[in-house]
Structure formats: structure tokens, C-alpha cells
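Regression report. Comparing outputs from two consecutive submissions.

Submission 1:
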Amino acid sequence: MAQKIISPLTRENVPIAIQVTVDKGVITDAKMMARNMRGFEYMLKGLAPSDAPYFTERICGICSTAHAVASCLALENATSHDLTKNGVLIRNILFVGDILQNHLRHFYLLAVPDYVDLPEKPPWTPRNRFPNSLPKPVNERIVKNYFRAFEVSRDAHTLTAIMGGRAPHQWSMQPGGATIQPTAERIMRAKAVVERIKAFVTQDYREDVEALAEAYPEYFEYGTRPRNYIAYGTLPNPDKPHEFLQPPQVVLEGKVEALEVKNITEDIRFSWYRGKNQVSQGPFYAKPPEPDRSKQEAYSWIKAVRYKGRACEGGPIVRAYLAGGYRRTNATWDRHLARQWEAANYVEMVLKWISQLKEDEPAYNHWETPDSARGEGLIESMRGPLGHWVEIEGGRIKNYTVITPSVWNMGPRAGPTDLGTVEEALIGTPIKDIENPVEIGRVIRAFDPCSACAVHVITPTRKLEPIRVV
């Protein structure tokens, strides 16, 4: 039996650490360790509620629009606010632009280097070495598309900027809708951009992920875990703004049921926080727990979030499963294939939405700040379920809570045998070389982890404490 700590695990959005126990060449235990704290909930206290979308966008640069959407939904939910069809369409278009750039960058920039031979020069060297199972022409094609993907993902960001003013961290989306009005010029530009994205996503992206899956078939077995899934609802319906195109649902041991927020819990027993209650229950309007980096049994800044006591996975594979578009298991390649399937579907959807925009109809419906209110904003983002909860008192933010997809996927255990989602997926993975455990990175990166969303900054008034390596 041996223990291995990889710190940092790179090629994910903000490096994390992972500790695994390997017995007879197989992972038997795992701990996901996020060692930087995100303090946005503390920053938001006392601010004007309308500032929340802009502040929470800065939680992450790769999925900033998702936070703007969730924040706006929470504020609108607090006041039972209605949106115009144009407002919903513009939000969906700029959000999908951000989703597409994320999916492309995740696969090519973060995941592909685990399977192909890239140029033997910086920044691709030094790197981990592994047996390359790809035929040389296929390897060369994927490397070529690796570089093309940067251009196409830039096109996706351009789509977001056309409707959002800039990308990342768009500034059009506000509670009440979108402040950029569609024009003939914007509509034509958006269509042209999406057509370029469509060609790459539906052909090159699909061919590359299928080729890698064929060359490394063992990853249709590595990374599986119980089929416990959660999804908050996939994009508002432009014709019925208070309904989702795909409803909020959970899958528990293969059985689908409607989502109820009251069944979500957050556990801090193995997280660096202290509070009167070790477990809190949704909806999450209470003051967040205080940081406690000295807590000895803890090993992560991420909290353990559960649904009816189960660690639930979120992300494209869940949305594809619930939509009936992908019904294989949930191994490493299944996550990648489901993400490509979703990207291809989103391209078609966004083309339809662009054609429905009306130049002479408003995209914004004025939103008034309430004196006191509570609201929640739940939405499916790039990596899975994203939830924002806001409590307003005296016209200012009293409490704000964010539970991101990477909290669901990368969180710690909630008990000695109650492992987090990625921790579960690692159990049973064979490791050929404990000194070069490429299998660990391949399994984890398939989740598209983003600890920038799950953790971020430290409290500036506190003295920094050294990282404890165990």
C-alpha cells in the first residue's frame, strides 16, 4: 500500500491537490484537497443587490456568465420579476457562447495533453510521459485541432461579447434582462460567428474525442461511480421565461425525480470552516460559516454538498442523460462524449434563438431594488448545477451564498465512508506507475474541475498560515 499526493494537479482552472491510496496497483481511497479559499460571500455583504451579478462574475473567468445568470435569477426571484422574450433570448445566446468556449478549451487545452504528443518545446515541456496509443496521422490531426480550438473558442467569446459588450465578464446582463439591444448588424455578426463554431464542433471536435476514445478504450471503465446525478434546469424558455427548457431533476440510483432544494445539505465536518451547525440545509439564506484553517480533521476549503445524503454529480453527462441524448455509463470518456454532444446541440439552439431576436422589442424590463426580500437563482452552468441565494435587508445584501458545480463534483467526504463525487470516481482506477500516475489526471480532468469557482481568496486581515502537507 502506498500514498501519493499530487500538488498541484495542473491543467484545471486553479490548481488543486489530490491524495490517493494505492493498494496492489489500484486506488482504494482518495481526497480532493482545495487549498485556497473563495470569500465572495463575505465581500458581497452590505453591497447594493444590483452589484451582485458583476461581483460574482469575478468568481471565475472561464464561466463568468454563469454567475451573472444565477445572480440575476436570484434577484428577480426575490421580486417576482418578469422578463421580455428578447431579454431571455439575449441572455441565452451570450450564456451559450460562454458555454461553448468553455467546452472547447476544456477538451483541447486541459484534457487532450493527457493523450497526445504535443510539440517538444515550452510550454509543453517538461511533461508527463505515457505510451501514446494514437496512430501518428491521428495524433498530428488532433494537435492541429488543438491550436485551431483556441481560435474557435475565441469566436465563442466573440458571440458573448456581441450580446454582452465584452467577454469574459460581460456587462449587458442585469436583473431585469439585458441592456444591449439587438440590431441587424449584431444579429448578422452573431450568425456568422456561430456558423464557424458549428463546423468545428460538429466535425473536428466529434472526430477527435471519438478517436481518443477508440485509442484508449480502458477509459470507458475508469472513472465510473454510482449514478447519482443533479441538474438545476437548463436555460430559461424564451416563450415561458419562468420555465426551463430542461426541468430541475435529480437521479438517485438510476431513478429520476423532481428537484427539491430543501433536500440539499452542506456539511463542513471535513472543510476548513467553523460554525454552530456542522450541516446546513437548503435554501441557503443564513450567514456563511467562518473560515478555520487550523481545523485538524479538515482537508479542503470546499464544503461537502449532498442531496438526500448522496454525493451527486453534475455536468454535461447529467444533462445529456436526462435529455435522453446519452445513456451510456459515467466513465471518463462518457463525460467527454456527453460534453461534445451538448456543444453540438447548443450550436443548433443558439442559431434558432438568434433568428428570433426582434430589433423593435425591448430586452430590458426595469428592476427595482426591494427593501427586504429573499431569492434563489438556480441554473445549469458549464460544469453542472450553480446556485445563488441572496437575502436583502434595508436595500442591501445581508447574506449571499454560492454553491458551484465544482462544489458538487470536487467536494470532500461527509463521513469516513461518504466520499465526494470525484473521490468516488477515482476508487478502483488502476495505476500502472505510482511515480507517474497519469490515470489520476485523466479521470479528474474529465469532470472539467474549476476550483476557482469552488475556492478563491483569503481574508486579507488574517495572518497567512503555512499549507499543511499530509
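Submission 2:
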Amino acid sequence: MSFAFERMVAGRYLRSKRKEGFISVIAGFSFLGILLGVATLIIVMSVMNGFREELVGRILGLNGHINVYSRLGPMFPYEPLIEQIKKVPGVKTATASIEGQALLTVNGVAGGAVVRGVMPEDFLKKPIMSTSIIRKLPDTAGFGGDYVAIGKNLAEHFQLDVGDKLVLIAPKGKTTPFGTIPRSRTFIVGSIFDVGMYEYNSSFVFMPLDAAQAFFDMGMSISAIEIMTPDPANFEVTEKAVHKILSPEYSVADWQDTNASFYNALQVESSVMFLILTLIIVVAAFNIISSLIMLVKDKGRDIAILRTMGATKGMIVRIFLYTGATIGIVGTLAGTLLGVVFCRNIEAIRQWLQGLLHRNLFNDEIYFLTKLPAKMDPHEVVVIVCISLGLSFAATLYPAWRAARLDPVEALRRE
């Protein structure tokens, strides 16, 4: 059956007339509530997904998926262990690294820095680093020997450019007959990188592994072995295999262990935001209920006449189901379209708003990223649309049932 009659009557009820104009206004606000609720939910969840993907991607781009440490101090010899780890199924690369704190000074200005020593070939093989070098010395690799790589924000803070010199002071001093004196060394800025994450751009200094060994007085030893896997989301099997071949003096930590509080906070925040923003759609659904109840009350005489002319209770139910469902369906589709368009152009919209308001709406020192990310998950969008449509349909059930129960005799007697 086409139910053309029910759709025709529902369409007339949705069109504004002078007598029931107030009801149409409420229906309009219900439509706007559904639209804004769906759009807001899609935009916020996409931004949350973008944050999670960008932050995790940049963290994993500079750090190993699995790290091996020695419980007894510096690791030496480490080459046989690296070769052994490389033979484990699921291990993509295994590289040596040294990391420590240092004091960076330039022309009397001092500040803390995180020094990480890696082999030059391993540094250039990191995908995120190979695409993030914004300036480097011409005719050089920009890394190796006395050349180090520093972050963009660190360079801006100390007013450094490629070719400039900086002094690093190690935390462990040199013992002399006259006491302990600081161990310092002068390096040249060979390259400046921008990985899009403020924490790394503002504090990290990458130097060759042999230079880091000499700087931290570690001889030929290292502090950790970084292991990369093909898929950072499924590394558990590889981690167990690596742990099985290691002796008890070594410990293994994966990237989720290292960043557990940060990663869990993102997960909890995403779930809570979804629940909170869903309440916007719930409020809009209650508006649909109130507008339909008022419509039933206002159209009592019309319903009674339709019943006396042969309309069944099922027809009356369908009329008001169509009326409320139309608001929900159109509002959901419009909200989905608005949310998708907004997410596709969110960075351009941010730049436009910043220019209009003359304010920084996305400070990279607070949010860790230099650009506002947004990544839509098709599964989440479908879930949001289904929730909106489900709440909209549910909101029509009680008013439609109440309209069908209306007694024609009693309704006409009151007229």
C-alpha cells in the first residue's frame, strides 16, 4: 500500500497556517535541534578521531612501537641482540638509540632539551622525519658528525637557523682533581624539522649515535632498542615473541604502556563526549513529542471527522508517524550534510574565524598539534544517523497512539 492519503494529510499538517502557526514554529525548532545535534556530534567525534590519529601517529613516527631496555644499565654489546630481534616474525626494524636530558645554551640563553641519539641512516629512514625537514644546510644531509636536527619551536625560541652553533651541557659532569666540571660540547644546527607536534618541536634535539655516546659518556653502549612493526595496532604477538627470546636482564615496553594515561584519556574523553552530545538529539526528540501532542490537541475535530468518514485507527497513527518522522528524517539528513561539509573544510573555517576574530583559536602549545585535525569514521556517522532516526521515530509513537485513541463523539461534542 502507498499510504498516499496519510502522507498528504501529514504534509498539510507540517505546512504553516495562521491558526496553528505556533505549532509549526515548535516543529521548526525541533528540526533545527535535530540538525544541529547530528552536525555537532559528527563534527566533534571527527575532531576527536583526528586528534587521536594525529597524536598517536606522530608519537609512533618518532618512537618505537616496542622498546627493549636493560635492567642492569647501559646495553653493551648490543649488535648481536639487534640481529637476534630482527629475525623475530613481525619485526620490521630494530635500531639502537640513546635518550637523555641536557641543558641547551645559546648566547647566554639557556633551556632544557631532550637529546636523542640515533644512527644517521635510521634517522633519515623515519617516514615522519624525512617529510618534516623544513630547512637544512645545502649540500649536506643535515644530520651526522657535528650536525644535529632541532625542532621548529626550539629554533624559534633560541633564534637559531641552519648553520648556527649551540652548546649542550650533559647532566653527568667530568671528574677532575679540582672537582666535577660540566661536560659540554658545541654542535651545529644541520636541519630544522616540524613534525606537527609541539612537544617534539619545542624540546627535541636529534644527534648521531656516536656523538650521543660521547656526550653522555656511555662509551660504546646504548640505552634502548627501538622496534617497529608493520601495524602498531596489532603488535601483541610480536611483543610476546620478542620477550620470549630475551634473557631476564632485559625488559620490554610497548607504546601503549609508555603512553597509557594519555591514550586512555583520549578513549574516555571520546566516549563521554559522544554520550553528552547525544543528549542534544534527545532534547530535539522531546520537542517533536511536544509539538505533535499540541498538534493532536489542535486537530481533535479534524481527527474526529476523519474517523466518522471511515478512517481507521491505523490511518490516524500513520498520519502522525509521517508528520514526526518527516521532521526527524529531514533534520538528520541536513545535519549529516552540514557535519560532513564542515569536517571537510574545518581547517579553512578555523583560519577564516581566526582572521575574523583576530584571535588564535587553536594554540599548538595547548593542543600539541599545529593544525586542527578531523577524521570522519563512516561507522560512527552511520551510528549517529541511526540514533537520530531511532529517537525521532520513537518520539512520534506516543502522540500517534494518543491521536488514534481519540473518541470521535467526545471530540465533536466539545466543538
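Expected: both submissions complete independently.
Actual: both completed, but the second showed a warning that disappeared on reload.
Relevant detail on submission 2: The CA atoms of residues 18 and 340 lie 36 Å apart.
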